[in-house]
From TrEMBL:
Domain (CREG-like beta-barrel): residue spans on this chain: 32-253
Protein name: CREG-like beta-barrel domain-containing protein
InterPro entries: CREG_beta-barrel, Split_barrel_FMN-bd
Pfam families for the chain: CREG_beta-barrel
Keyword Signal belongs to the record: yes
Domain of life: Eukaryota
RNA-binding keyword on record: no
Swiss-Prot/TrEMBL keywords: Signal
Gene3D superfamilies in the cross-refs: Electron Transport, Fmn-binding Protein, Chain A (2.30.110.10)
First and last residue of the signal peptide: 1-20
UniProt lineage: Eukaryota, Fungi, Dikarya, Ascomycota, Pezizomycotina
Organism the protein comes from: Parathielavia hyrcaniae
Length: 281
């Protein structure tokens, strides 16, 4: 078997243990946790979306009008709840605490108001698809969509079933979870003040539509908050070439702007290969 075939067979049958035989021109050196922190800080700076998870508080006898209005069921006490939120990296202390515009009425922020900690999951999404993909034997021989397995009668040459839903291996790319709590940013809601006006400018540069719900808008109560990062869990990709584990929070905070600005992530440049290691980027 060709190395690529072996690798993809193993990739299909299972995961990390197989990684040691993946083809590479290099002796792979796994980045340190600090090098991973640099990549993570760049991902945070370049990524406008994340999933914030909180935990529902103990049920109170419901005098909560909002809960009634949205028909919240009873018995959610302690349930985790995660949903996409806008994020940004707007504070100038450069400590890697994400900036979030909290809409008071949102479930995430009501859970926080009731005492919940938060975790924020962020994944790297490459702006360009790879020129050369990690492929399975199956897709090398003939591309078949998942639908054609369910409905074998379907012709395999139908155009709209040809493309794979994701043009890159997401499992091979970095993602992380920032664990901590939310706190108000002093002066953040004062649009005339130095801090508040700068935050609003930075946030709207990332999220133009958010100009309608900046602090002081007439629709929803909103406040700029920071996620105070207390712990960082990192999965850099496949374990033979990426660091997987906890990054000490001091390392996360220590990364300088210059360091993350110089770093490069997979897919920032056109024509990248999925097998390349971080030093090639
Ligand atoms: C939030 O996390 C801290 C640990 O960082 C913990 O001490 C505290 O009890 C947590 N709060 C809740 C409401 O679980
Ligand atoms: C953070 O940076 C300071 C100052 O450069 C250094 O003394 C410290 O060892 C660093 N800590 C970590 C965990 O990298």
């Amino acid at each position: 078997m060709k190395p690529a075939t072996i690798a993809s067979t193993l990739l299909l049958s299972c995961c990390a243990a197989a990684a040691a035989v993946f083809p590479s021109d290099h002796d792979l050196r796994i980045p340190t946790s600090y090098e991973s922190a640099i990549l993570g800080r760049r991902i945070l700076a370049l990524t406008p979306l994340g999933t914030i998870s909180t935990v529902f508080p103990k049920d109170k006898p419901s005098h909560d009008d909002v809960a009634a209005e949205e028909r919240r069921p009873a018995g959610l006490d302690g349930m985790p709840y995660g949903l996409m939120e806008y994020i940004s990296d707007c504070e100038d202390d450069n400590l890697g605490n994400p900036t979030i515009l909290a809409i008071t009425i949102g479930t995430t922020f009501r859970n926080v108001a009731a005492g919940s900690n938060v975790s924020l999951a962020v994944q790297w999404t490459p702006p360009h698809p790879p020129a050369k993909r990690i492929e399975s034997t199956q897709t090398q021989n003939k591309r078949r969509s998942w639908l054609s397995y369910l409905l074998p009668g379907l012709g395999t040459n139908e155009k709209h079933h040809d493309a794979t839903p994701l043009p890159y291996s997401a499992a091979n790319l970095p993602r992380f979870s920032l664990l901590g709590h939310l706190e108000p940013i002093e002066g953040g809601d004062d649009r005339q003040g130095e801090v508040g006006s700068r935050l609003a400018r930075c946030y709207v540069a990332t999220h133009p539509d958010a100009k309608y719900w900046l602090p002081g808008n007439h629709v929803h109560e909103a406040h700029f908050v920071r996620l105070v990062v207390e712990q960082v869990y990192w999965v850099g990709g496949f374990g033979d070439r990426a660091f997987i584990g906890w990054i000490p929070v001091e390392e996360w905070q220590n990364v300088t702007r210059e360091e993350w600005q110089k770093a490069r992530l997979p897919g920032e440049k056109k024509g990248w290969k999925e097998w390349s290691v971080w030093e090639d980027l």
